[in-house]
Amino acid sequence: MNQIAQHLLQVKERIVQAAQRVDRSADQIQLLAVSKTKPLADIQAAYAAGQRRFGESYAQEAAHKIDTLRAQAGYADIEWHFIGPLQSNKSRLVAMRFDWVQSVDRDKLIERLNDQRPAELPALNVCLQINISGESSKSGTSEQEIFRLAALVANCDRLVLRGLMAIPEHTSDEAVLAAQMRRMQTLFTELARQYPSVDTLSMGMTEDLEPAIAHGSTMVRVGTAIFGARDYS
């Protein structure tokens, strides 16, 4: 078994244990392998180990990976999620290739993704990103804007509203982290009451997936614990 396969097993076991501690089923929590900046060989190794959901953050890098794998036999069932900040001038790359966009946070992006989604493809799954920590360095809309943006997505014929995404504050203060995650859980519950298509709370990464699961996350986005630290060279 290669290292990536071993890491996947370890992460899945963390998910199982975290779910058990709060009387949830691990089947309620999806694992998104964050493969941004990682080579195709790493994605192929994870795929061989059974992973099917992958997250990318850079449109041009991701487009190259997706196009390359789709030209090869055997990778048609990969589910591609765009999870990074998306510039409007890169929206077409994403609308044409991805299955999900988790980082939608403004009107213009909603309009462009809807207009640019090819008619022959299924509607694009959308999560609204909330800047739940209020940090200026992070993307995402405010809590006050969520329900207005949700209505815009719901009125689009080429988009499907699936839920919310957030990157809570990176902090050792467990109370601060729990408060932000609890607020996300509340917003998600409120949104799901209004829109039957809403079923996804994307929250939790390598360092905080356990508290995220304790606060209702249905999808954790894990990169480092699967692929190792990012290469900034």
Q: What's a quick, concise take on this entry?
A:
The chain is of the alpha/beta class and 233 residues long. Helix content is 42%, strand content 17%. Strand 6, helix 7 and strand 7 form a beta-alpha-beta unit.
Amount of helix: 40-55%
Spans where pLDDT lies below 50 across 5 or more residues: none
Task: Tell me what portion of residues adopts beta-strand conformation.
Answer: 15-25%
* Distance linking N and C termini: 28 Å
- The largest sheet has its strands arranged as 7-6-5-4-3-2-1-8
Q: SSE order in H/E notation?
A: HEHEHEHEHEHEHEHEH
Q: What are its keywords?
A:
single chain; 233 residues; alpha/beta; eight-stranded parallel β-sheet; 9 helices; 8 strands; 17% strand; globular
Q: If you had to describe this structure to a student in words, what would you say it looks like?
A:
It is a single chain. With 233 residues, the protein is an alpha/beta fold. Helix content is 42%, strand content 17%. The protein contains nine helices and eight strands. It has helices spanning 3-21, 40-48, 59-70, 91-97, 107-116, 146-154, 174-194, 209-214, 224-227; strands at residues 30-34, 53-56, 79-82, 100-104, 124-130, 159-166, 200-202, 219-222. The chain has an eight-stranded parallel β-sheet. β2, α3 (59-70) and β3 (79-82) form a beta-alpha-beta unit. The two termini are 28 Å apart.
